[in-house]
Amino acid sequence: MHNPARYLTRGWAKVEPLADDGALGPLLAAYVNLIDENFVARMDDADPNARGELLAVRDAVRAVAPSPQADILIDAVDAALDTFWGT
């Protein structure tokens, strides 16, 4: 799929594709590339640097134009933070 961030959705909900995901696309890629087996192990160990990396992604997403797709990505980061750090 070209520009997958344009189509982020919750479940089977219909989504209005973004006209331009130029900012959100790289942030989605950063999040997906970040959450690998090694990173999950770091989160299990409560590595503060891992938490910082997630916060950096979330802050970057918050800095782009608001959209349902950005909200979904923020929710994913927040879920990881809550699961591993309770924040």
Structure characterization notes:
By secondary structure, this protein is mainly alpha-helical. Helices cover about 60% and strands about 0% of the residues. It is built from four helices and no strands. Helix 3 (about 50-60) packs antiparallel against helix 4.
Summary tags:
87 residues; mainly alpha; 4 helices; elongated
Please specify the SSE layout and strand pairing:
Layout lengths: L23 H11 L2 H8 L3 H15 L5 H18 L2
Global outline: elongated
Q: Which sheet architecture does the biggest sheet show?
A: none
Radius of gyration over C-alpha positions, nearest whole angstrom: 13 Å
Distance between the termini: 33 Å
Give the SSE string: HHHH
Helix/strand-derived class?
mainly alpha
Q: Please, how many helices? A: 4
Which segments are poorly predicted (pLDDT under 50) over 5 or more consecutive residues? none
Number of strands: 0
Mean pLDDT: 87
